[in-house]
Design brief:
Chain lengths: 275, 287
């Protein structure tokens, strides 16, 4: 599914002294089968934007189109099946006595039949490397395990677009790698993935395109190399680019690598016979 | 078996936090969350705690502040047993939780930051001053009258940290204090912690090894056991230790290692860029 945002504005607590304009007219295209990384400082509007994609929040003005159709005209239940949203710290919402039942909760309401529901739950847990947890009570799991179970609960709905808000916060590096692998696999299978993250290094590694939000506006949208070689601020630049950029003045042949492996290869080439 | 073989030096001074052969299992779960954990932190030490998810890091912090009670073994914090005297212990120990939503209670940011002080019976004028300083320290000036639930995850985490700084406890237990923060917020929080170094005893749980490169020592917890208590240098030099405990070096250090440069000497991407430039220049001169 392709999602298009047209000048989306959002205001919290309108007409009160606490009024905050969180989105100031964001226009953005989310293509099918891509990983779109959304980055930006704390309070830049990332989570607010995510919650508009399945109309958990409605825009004060502007439009959101799903495959060209205004999402306001799509039934909410239909929209939320097609656009799955994984919140920040989603494990807070686990409640069923076992992992299996928790993951089955949402698909059960799709009336797929017992067999199909079971199959989906099994496959989703397998995809996330959490099959061994099926019979365990969620509260007894570690933070990383809970995170995977919470994501499984959304994936079991087989959404066309998966939106994740800081999905790797608090995960150990190896578990984080595994999860990024899952997101790539979903993308390759045709799911659009929107990943909000403050970790630029991981966005550099996994995103096909990047959107930088700043104070509720999109400051840049493009491929990782377009976006990450644009900004002078270290806080908007992944570590790989921070290493390469100072070298480009005297050694332009190093190019504009972003991902870790391509950066290492370019640097090895540069230092040549010394390594 | 604890592996403590590496270079560096521990602080001398009285032990402030100590655990002896600590064990704990969550009710209804099969394995133990912690077994046979013994270590000590001396006054003013900055102690890192790392290891895979489910390794026992958060459980250890909860035992230290008396939220849960050990099945066997001893815990002593400032000479007190937190399970027996949780309220005494919490006057001296501040804890920052992983998920900041769990800690915010008041209608406005400034009330939230003041909450702990109110409970300690601090006077009005002093309270106001301490709250003001703490809010400034985490870069949230102008947020005093915001409602916590309207804040972003990273802003909430900073409010929670401000509450802790206002209390100014002797011992800080920090469970991934930067996990929700962007690069700028993370740097700010780490600078605040750096200012407290040596005057407060700090246990800092994190998945970011770069936050612990100047820690006094680092505990590695895996599957409920303390598998290593080492100086941070060792985490940089020992790939096997990292692999076995699902740890990763920061990106710049990994690039340095891939280029056969010393990751321990090159802590930032900018330092690495300079080292590469020097290397290239030497190569050209040699030819």
């Amino acid at each position: 599914m392709r999602i298009e945002l047209e000048s989306v504005r959002h205001v919290y607590a309108p007409g009160t002294p606490f009024e905050v304009e969180a989105l100031r007219g964001v226009s953005l295209m989310i293509e099918s089968d891509e990983v779109l990384g959304i980055v930006g400082g704390t309070g830049s509007g990332k989570s607010t934007l995510a919650q508009h994609l399945n109309l958990l929040l409605a825009p004060a003005s502007g439009r959101i189109l799903a495959d060209g159709v205004d999402v306001q005209t799509i039934a909410r239940s239909e929209l939320r099946r097609r656009v799955g949203l994984v919140f920040q710290s989603p494990e807070a919402a686990l409640f069923a006595p076992t992992v299996e039942e928790d993951v089955a909760f949402a698909p059960q309401r799709l009336e797929l039949g017992v067999e199909e529901t079971r199959r989906r739950v099994r496959e989703t847990l397998e995809l996330l490397g959490a099959s061994h947890l099926a019979a365990r009570p969620p509260h007894a799991l570690s933070a990383g395990e809970k995170r995977r179970v919470a994501i499984a609960g959304v994936l079991a709905m087989a959404p066309e677009v998966l939106v994740l808000d800081e999905p790797t916060a608090g995960l150990d590096p190896a578990t984080r790698e595994d999860l990024l692998g899952v997101l790539r696999a979903l993308r390759d299978g045709g799911t659009s993935v929107v990943m909000i993250s403050h970790d630029l290094d991981e966005v550099a590694e996994v995103a096909d395109r990047v959107c930088v939000l700043e104070k509720g506006e999109e400051r840049a949208v493009g491929t990782p190399e377009e976006v990450f070689y644009t900004f002078p601020e270290a806080s908007l630049t992944p570590a790989t680019v921070r290493v390469v950029r100072p070298l480009r003045g005297s050694h332009p042949e190093v190019g504009r690598p972003v991902r870790f492996e391509e950066t290492l290869a370019a640097l090895k080439e540069l230092v040549g016979g010394q390594v | 078996m604890i592996d403590g073989n590496n270079e560096g030096a521990r602080r001398s001074g009285p032990s402030v936090v100590s655990c002896g052969d600590l064990a704990f299992s969550y009710p209804g779960s099969e394995g133990a969350a912690l077994t046979g954990v013994s270590f000590e932190a001396r006054a003013g030490e900055y102690v890192g705690v790392v290891g895979p998810n489910g390794g026992g890091k958060s459980t250890l912090l909860r035992l230290l502040n008396g939220l849960i009670k050990a099945d066997t073994g001893s815990v002593s914090i400032g000479g007190l047993d937190p399970a027996a005297e949780p309220f005494e212990v919490r006057k001296r120990v501040g804890m920052l939780f992983q998920n900041p939503d769990n800690g915010l209670v008041a209608p406005f940011v400034e009330d939230d930051v003041a909450f702990g002080l109110e409970n300690l019976g601090v006077g009005r004028a002093e309270m106001r001053e301490r709250v003001r300083r703490a809010i400034r320290a985490v870069g949230l000036e102008g947020y005093e009258r915001r409602e916590p639930h309207t804040l972003s995850g990273g802003e909430k985490q900073r409010v929670a940290l401000a509450g802790l700084l206002a209390l100014d406890p002797e011992i800080l237990l920090l469970d991934e204090p930067t996990s929700m923060l962007d690069a700028a917020g993370r740097r700010e929080v780490l600078e605040r912690l750096e200012e407290l170094r040596g005057t407060r005893t700090i246990l800092h749980v994190t998945h970011h090894l770069d936050e612990l490169l100047s820690a006094d020592h680092v505990l590695v917890l895996n599957a409920g056991e303390l598998v290593a208590d080492v100086f941070p240098k060792r985490l940089v030099s020992d790939a096997k230790l990292r692999r076995e405990n699902r740890l990763a070096l920061p990106t710049a250090s990994r690039l340095a290692a891939g280029l056969r440069l010393d990751p321990a000497q090159l802590r930032t991407p900018e330092e690495l860029a300079e080292a590469i430039l020097r290397r290239v220049k030497l190569g050209v001169e040699a030819r």
